[in-house]
């Protein structure tokens, strides 16, 4: 008869983190963290679970607002029609909501469409402005054949996107960004935001080069309101 003893199962490592998404489990994890009972590994698990939960919530809100804007927003519907006339198509399948690791609110890529940074867009109004901004880039790509590696081209489309999307209207500047200037507010906002966007391009050396590119094309690009008759504010 064999006298070998069964090998005991290895004990599970107690990290202080309990998997689960119900209210009780969330509170248990918060309490464990506050009391210092969570190991480094447990903290990593807790932060990942929290980020996953936030990503799901952020993306659900983003997708809901995206669909509402595509259906009901005057500026988004107008830009969508003009893009369609140029042979493009903006719809819910190529406007994607994702969490972004950077401070940007969105982006446009002619190969993939528009990305909205769900963690940076906290209201439907902010999403509407961001979507309209990226749709101006899509329009420019189809209408003017923008060279993405040309800083002057980049500066022009950024000026137009900030001018026409509504993101620089006075109420947005005053209440959201704390910019209280009453004269030439719109121009200063467009110039500031266009310069920041150009400076973020990988082929731009610094903000000095970005400002130079914006200044070089400012007059013609700020005045170009196509496809609108006038600036949307």
TrEMBL record:
Keywords: Hydrolase, Membrane, Metal-binding, Metalloprotease, Mitochondrion, Mitochondrion inner membrane, Protease
Entry GO CC: mitochondrial inner membrane
Keyword match Repressor: no
GO biological process, one term: mitochondrial protein processing
EC annotation from Swiss-Prot or TrEMBL: 3.4.24.-
Location(s), subcellular: Mitochondrion inner membrane
Protein name: Mitochondrial inner membrane protease ATP23
Species this protein is from: Heterodermia speciosa
This protein's encoding gene: ATP23
